[in-house]
Amino acid sequence: MTAREALRAGLLAALRAALQPLAVTVFDAVPVRASVPQAVLGEPGESDWGAAGIEGRELRVAVTLTDEGERPLRLRAAMQAVEGITLSAALADGWQVAGWAVTATRMVKTGARWTASVEWRARLWRVGQ
Predict the structure, then answer these.
(1) H or E element: which one contains 27?
(2) Which candidate, 94, 24, 93, 91, places its Cα nearest to that of 61?
(3) pLDDT tens digits, 36-60
(4) Are 97 and 87 in contact (CB under 8 A)?
C-alpha cells in the first residue's frame, strides 16, 4: 500500500467518525447526485520526504464541505470537527504519521450553497524497511 492509500484510508475513517454526529455524509470522490450536507475527500498531492535509509512522503490533501442555508452554522460546526482531526500515529502497511497540520481553511457562499475547505499537510514515513 502506498503512502497515499494509507493516508486516504485513515483520513476517511477519521472524517466519518468526526462528521457522523453532524449527519454529514463523507465521500471519497465527487458524487454524481447527493444531498447536503456532504464532505468530499480530495486526492493528495505527494512529494518525497525521505532521508538516507528512510522512506518518507509529504502529502497535502483537502476536504471540501458543502451545505445550504441562510447562515453556515452547521458548516462551521463541521469545519471545527474536521480541523480537530488528528490521525493515529500508525496507518496501514507500516506507514507512520510524523507530522500532521492544518495549512489552510476557506469558506464561501455561491447562490444558496456554502462551501468550505480544510487542507492538511501530512508527513509519513514507513517503518520496518
Answers:
(1) strand 25-27
(2) 91
(3) 999 999 999 999 987 888 889 999 9
(4) yes
Residues with Cβ within 8 Å of residue 80, at least 6 apart in sequence: none
> Is the pLDDT reported for residue 128 higher than 80?
no
Instruction: Please name the residue that has the C-alpha cell 468550505.
Output: 116
DSSP 19: H
Dihedral (C-alpha) 46, 48, 49, 52: value to the nearest 10 degrees? 160
Question: Any idea which residue has 538516507 for its cell?
Answer: 52
- Give the C-alpha separation, 24 to 65, whole Å: 9
pLDDT averaged over the chain?
A: 93
Instruction: Kindly state the helix (H) or strand (E) to which residue 100 belongs, with its residue range.
Output: strand 95-110
Within 13 Å and on the Cβ side, how many CA atoms surround 80? 8
What residues does 38 pair with on adjacent strands? 25, 66
Backbone angles phi, psi at 61, to 5 degrees: -145, 150
Residues 6+ apart with CB under 8 A from 117: 62, 63, 64, 65, 104, 105, 106
